[in-house]
UniProtKB/TrEMBL annotation:
<dbReference type="Pfam" id="PF00132">
    <property type="entry name" value="Hexapep"/>
</dbReference>
<comment type="similarity">
    <text>Belongs to the transferase hexapeptide repeat family.</text>
</comment>
<dbReference type="Pfam" id="PF14602">
    <property type="entry name" value="Hexapep_2"/>
</dbReference>
<keyword id="KW-0808">Transferase</keyword>
<keyword id="KW-0677">Repeat</keyword>
<dbReference type="InterPro" id="IPR011004">
    <property type="entry name" value="Trimer_LpxA-like_sf"/>
</dbReference>
<dbReference type="InterPro" id="IPR018357">
    <property type="entry name" value="Hexapep_transf_CS"/>
</dbReference>
<dbReference type="InterPro" id="IPR001451">
    <property type="entry name" value="Hexapep"/>
</dbReference>
<protein>
    <submittedName>
        <fullName>Sugar O-acetyltransferase</fullName>
    </submittedName>
</protein>
<dbReference type="InterPro" id="IPR051159">
    <property type="entry name" value="Hexapeptide_acetyltransf"/>
</dbReference>
């Protein structure tokens, strides 16, 4: 797969299931399925996990990153992971629309991050709407939370366990519930 495909996808908001690019996307999906199966079968050292994730994402994963398996993604090539990121077990990243985790992000177990949706119109429903997700520096996503397409979770913010985030979360806030709502501000020391 070439970087051209990633660049093309980054510039798209909607892909019809009838578009020729879907064939190329499905080739990547098959390769990612092979790699995630390898990743999740048997024990892997942290170095081995990072190595396979580097293959999946097409980017070198920093040695400070820790990902506990099982970990799943569908496309894989539109995931960007910063330094000192921790991803707990049983997470699913649907990343065709793009997912970025900045430095020092914590992702709890069973978190789902979605960057793809489908149109309501049944004639187009097999196509996909692409909306990137960004989790900013020092954010913490609690166990079982779902981050919906197009969301930005602000720097230092916390998403409560089991929450469904349907709107952007500002910096330095705690959000929780279904749908997630503001709970309180996070007090931040100036040296973070």
């Amino acid at each position: 797969m070439s970087m051209d495909l990633i660049k093309i996808i980054e510039d798209m908001e909607f892909i019809s299931h009838e578009d020729a690019i879907f064939t190329e996307i499905h080739k990547v999906l098959e390769d990612t399925l092979r790699l995630t199966t390898e990743l999740n079968s048997g024990y892997k050292t942290p170095e081995e996990v990072r190595g396979i994730l580097s293959e999946i994402t097409g980017n070198k994963i920093d040695c400070s990153v820790q990902v506990l398996t099982p970990f799943n993604t569908d496309f894989g090539r539109n995931i960007k992971i910063g330094k000192d990121v921790f991803i707990n077990k049983s997470c699913m990243f649907v990343d065709l629309g793009g997912i970025e985790l900045e430095d020092n992000v914590l992702i709890g177990p069973e978190v789902k991050i979605l960057s793809v949706n489908h149109p309501l119109d049944p004639r187009n429903r097999r196509g996909v709407i692409l909306k990137s997700v960004k989790i900013k520096r020092n954010a913490w996503i609690g166990a079982g939370a779902i981050i919906c397409p197009g969301i930005t979770v602000g720097e230092n913010s916390v998403i409560g366990a089991g929450s469904v985030v349907t709107k952007d979360v500002p910096d330095n806030c705690v959000y929780g519930g279904v749908p997630a709502k503001f709970i309180k501000c996070v007090e931040v020391e100036s040296d973070i």
